[in-house]
Amino acid sequence: MLMDVVQAHRQRVEAELERLITQRTSIEPRLQAAMRYSLLNGGKRLRPTLVYLAAEICGGALNPADSAACAIEAVHSYSLVHDDLPAMDDDELRRGKPTCHIAFDEATAILAGDALLTWAFELISEPCIDVQPQTQLSMVRALARAAGDLGMVAGQAFDLNSVGKTLTLAQLQNMHAAKTGALINLALELGALSANATEEERDALRRYGQALGLAFQIKDDLLDIEGDTATLGKPQGSDMERNKPTYPALVGMEQCRLWLEELRKEAVDALASFGSKADSLRELAQYVIDRDR
Amino acid sequence: MLMDVVQAHRQRVEAELERLITQRTSIEPRLQAAMRYSLLNGGKRLRPTLVYLAAEICGGALNPADSAACAIEAVHSYSLVHDDLPAMDDDELRRGKPTCHIAFDEATAILAGDALLTWAFELISEPCIDVQPQTQLSMVRALARAAGDLGMVAGQAFDLNSVGKTLTLAQLQNMHAAKTGALINLALELGALSANATEEERDALRRYGQALGLAFQIKDDLLDIEGDTATLGKPQGSDMERNKPTYPALVGMEQCRLWLEELRKEAVDALASFGSKADSLRELAQYVIDRDR
Fold first, then answer.
1. Residue B153 and residue A88: Cβ atoms within 8 Å?
2. Strand stretches in chain B, DSSP E
3. How many angstroms separate the first and last alpha carbons of chain B?
4. C-alpha distances out from residue B189 to B49, B118, B135, B193, B208, Å
5. What pLDDT does residue A231 have?
6. What pTM was computed for the model?
7. Does A145 contact B at CB distance below 8 Å?
8. DSSP percent split of chain B into helix, strand, coil, nearest 5
9. Is A38 on the interface with B (CB under 8 A)?
10. Which residues lie below 8 Å from residue B271, measured CB to CB, with a gap of 6+?
């Protein structure tokens, strides 16, 4: 049931991304090939799916949510391309394929990331008849705030500077709230805004998103220890090898599993007022916790 | 006269940038220090000045143009930080000071650039009572298109891939139109939009901008040959040393000087309908051609 919905949304955003990126022709086709390579690489499309699901449970249609779904995936792709760079995480594999700077070169990867980030803002500001300009401007601003030096970029910088250091649990949570949580919450907020949601609906989605984002990260840390390289598409144990601070390292595996269960409940409870309309989001919280990659 | 105006606009945008960047506090102060370092580094502030001048000659005030002026300078700063990276132009000096990746480190420089670019979109989408949301959305879109894979980023990629190659004059012009011209034209367009300019005014500014942008680049190439390192704040002769395609290399120094004179006339003529209101922009075209750094 959830998987059908997720599959449909995933296909929708991929078709849309493919269509939109194919339309673009600049004086530098290699740059656009690198953008395309990084964008259409078999990702889970969790964030676009959240955009669509949030729009739907707030009574919105999918069309007005398309731009936001594509924009957020473009931002996510850019962040992976830059995070993988030699000066950052120095990763050679991403989802089982060579990372952008390996498949192309470092300069092209930096520029492809820059271009994907910039494109996201072009996408999200395209004229849309179903969304008020005032609301669309709020969407632009929300995207910028979640992605920038108060959100995702700060999280990545903090993460890089934390390698080998002992963090408190609060520091680790703040880091992940910025690094991963900001974009997950953004996805829900953009979907809600595209559907002209009420303040109450947006607030419920915010509480759901907080729990989901934290659960997502704890699960990621657990997978790095328990998963295997073939399933993950990246080397298993890479966090430990780099001495990165993780939830299991701070509170232990067992505590992480208990915490995940609490977060699942929190996420599900936050959606109470939506009734059965929110079943997919509830199942999604379960999926995030149960996934093996 | 022009210098007083330019000085005033420069001080205005610097005070505004300083005020805005100081307000921001994230979990990663080092990232924000790198943003600040790159932003407040004694640049010429040509692009913000163009925003203000365009707004003024279209009958607009400066307040509604502030966000665009700051946003475009943030984008310009980000592009310099990324262009200077080892994988790109590998420059250690910028305006006589260590480049961002030398003063901080490579990862921080990549992230500071990312954050400055993202911040630009936050700035330009801030609520503004003097500009209609619809117009503001157009400004967001114009910024994204000028800065991305159809504009500045494509220009930089093309430039990197052109080192050691022989370009035609048309290719060189297309490259610079994307790499530098797009942002110069954008500055004029954003200023005009912030002033609710007419289509005719915007079109005149577009023609002015085309000439100014090309003149700016030809002059840059000439300075690389004729200027001295102390005045330029960067090593003189660096283009030649890298075997970069330049206008003097393609058409000769003398032809470049004649061309500059033609472009000055084109720029001045484009502004005819504005009358004496456009004197500063006319003088600016002269300044761009006469400058020694």
1. no
2. 93-94, 97-98
3. 20
4. 12, 20, 11, 6, 11
5. 58
6. 0.94
7. yes
8. 75, 0, 25
9. no
10. B57, B204, B208, B278, B281, B282
Confidence of residue A217 (pLDDT cuts 50, 70, 90): very high
Cβ within 8 Å, pair B154-A28: yes
In the block, which residue shows the tokens 């000087």?
Answer: B257
Please determine, for residue B234, whether its predicted confidence score (pLDDT) is greater than 60.
Answer: no
Residue A110 class from Cβ within 10 Å (0-12 exposed, 13-18 middle, 19+ buried)?
A: buried
Interstrand relation of A97-98 and B93-94 (parallel, antiparallel or unpaired): unpaired
What's the number of domains chain B is made of?
Answer: 1
Full residue range of the structural domain in which residue A239 is found: 2-290
Token pair for residue A121? 């803002």
Q: Is the pLDDT of residue A81 over 90?
A: yes
**Which of these, A88, A148, A81, A74, lies nearest to A108 by C-alpha position?**
A81
Give the type of residue at A157: A
Residue closest to A13 by CA, chosen among A48, A44, A42, A39: A48
What do you get for the CA distance between the two ends of chain A, in Å?
Answer: 20
Burial string for B204-240 (b: 16+ CB within 10 Å, else e) reads bbeebbbbbbbbbbbbbbbbbeebeeeebebebeebe
For residue B42, the domain's CATH number is 1.10.600.10
Q: What is the rounded distance in angstroms from the CA atom of residue B50 to the CA atom of residue B206?
A: 12
| Separation between Cα atoms, residue B247 and residue B242, nearest integer Å | 15
Q: How confident is the prediction for chain A on average, in pLDDT?
A: 93
The mean per-residue pLDDT over the stretch A4-33 comes to 94
The structure tokens listed for A39 are 């964008």
Shortest Cα distance, chain B CAs vs residue A224, angstroms: 23
Nearest residue on chain B to A120, alpha-carbon basis: B144
Query: Residue A246, CB half-sphere, CA atoms under 13 Å: how many?
Result: 24
